[in-house]
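Crash report, auto-generated. Payload:
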Amino acid sequence: MKLRGSTIGAGLVLTVAALFIFLPVAVLVQFSFQDGLVPVPPFRGFSLRWYEKALENRRLIEALWNSLAVALLSSLVATILGFLAAHGLARRRAGWNRAAELLLMAPITVSYLIIGMGLLMTFTMAGLAKSLLAVGIGHVVINLPLAFAICYAQLGAHQVAVERAAEDLGAGPWQTLLLITVPMMAPSLGAAFALSATLSWDEFVIAFLLSRFDVTLPVVIWSMLRSGLSPELNAVGTMVFAVSVGALLAAELLIFRRLRGG
Amino acid sequence: MAEPFLLLEGVAKTYGATQAVAGIDLAVERGEFVVLLGPSGSGKTTILSILGGFIEPTSGRMLLDGEDVTGLSPARRPTATVFQDYALFPHMSVAANVAFGLAMHKVPNPERRRRVEEMLERVGLAGFGRRRIHELSGGQRQRVALARAIAVEPKLLLLDEPLGALDLALRRQMQEELVRLQKQLGTTFVHVTHDQDEAMSIADRIVVMNHGRIEDQGRPDRVYLKPASLFAATFMGESNIITGTVRARDGRNLLIETALGTLAVPADAELGRSISLSLRPEHLGLGPAPTGALALPSAIIEEVVFQGTHLRVRGRTESGIELLLRLPAGSSVGQGTRAPLHADPSRIVLLAS
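Recovered output after restart:
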């Protein structure tokens, strides 16, 4: 087969783009195994000692559990609220639907910094101290539009028809929701949850602004970075990255399974 | 006269300025198989949704078995619907789909299982209980939807174009099965379709709808042979419509002036009225008029199409009127030839224009 110039050109662009995106991550991962004191070239050989050190760091491990709790709980809340909002809107095609959609999606257009500042002021006025709870609420704010959009996309005419059928056979609204809608929407709900959890897991700005004594992992990493580079940070970064990739893969699998299942 | 089993009284539904259903009265007897027939937008599906409780009528009321059910939700109404796209529960097995309504009606388990088996057997799906919905063909899904609806033993079964997605052979087969099932169960069926062949093959009574109104209703043969309106005549099969004016009365006949000349038709109408005559293609004949037949002007045969059971022939008279004929398959008709035409006067239907 003869390769055309345009094919080669496209391949080249793709390779450069992929390198641009993935090289920093690859370097970060590589130097987490550095057998030396600084995570910069030359690579002095393979060692797991920085992982050992990171896992022994109590502050880091505590923050890891905090991050996990915030990610799982805030995503759970965001998914439930997003699903209920989408379900309500999809079932009642009213004149103000479009306005409600825009309102629900609006936070996605606002920068995390602005949302964080706004929440900080609101919480101060409301008397809610900087805490993991405040961070969690912040993550619900940023993830709700995402969860809403994912659920809304799957709630088409067919879903409405199936719910009508359940109702027709004698099911009440809650029975229909729990026995029909939620199981049918499970892939979307799973995807919304996994994506929300991933975003919450490595979100920094809001977590930094809204936490004080108990902090999440990105905040600890940031404070450690202030005292200079260390392969320990690379090791932590690699672990954070691995968790994110795992969650994203889970979401992808759920979405693909849904598409194949029709 | 006893009160009918199902009664719609002055039922209307408007959406803003659009009138989907315009004040309809409809009475259905217990155990009747009624087909609502009409083009899309005729209001037939809206009527079905009102019967099922999915749409609340703007005005009017609905009585079912002596009870006013107008305000009842679908869940609390003794009706069940077979939906157009089946609306099966994709995450459940076939048996769980059929059992769903029974579980909602709190039928205890051994009884529930027995009923599910019985329903699946009735629709010809015995042994399919553990299959998943996505493993089934379109026809099988249709049967599951049917079994699921009849399992709750509704007083009224509503069918929303349930055979629309099936191929012709399967559709014919399902039509027969629907009729058989309906007679066995004795349940009252209201079926919606836009296919007049389907309506004629399954209905005890056809209700022809257009623009949110009932145009005609009655036994299929009556609606076909003596349609009550111009719309019913053209929608129920093909028909030649000739406009004319009533000129005189001659004994039992009316003399009607048309583009085909003055025709003597056994009917009654006011003199001077403009009317339309409906002539079915199969009631027209080619050749010299036999005794009792009505002679028509001769026509040039423009097209002859062989359709298996018959020939579909298109002719044009000298005055430019196009006529459709349906002749026996063996007839000898030469395309481009001129031939005299005749009609059976007793089959000509006089309609208000």
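Post-recovery validation: The radius of gyration of chain B is 24 Å.
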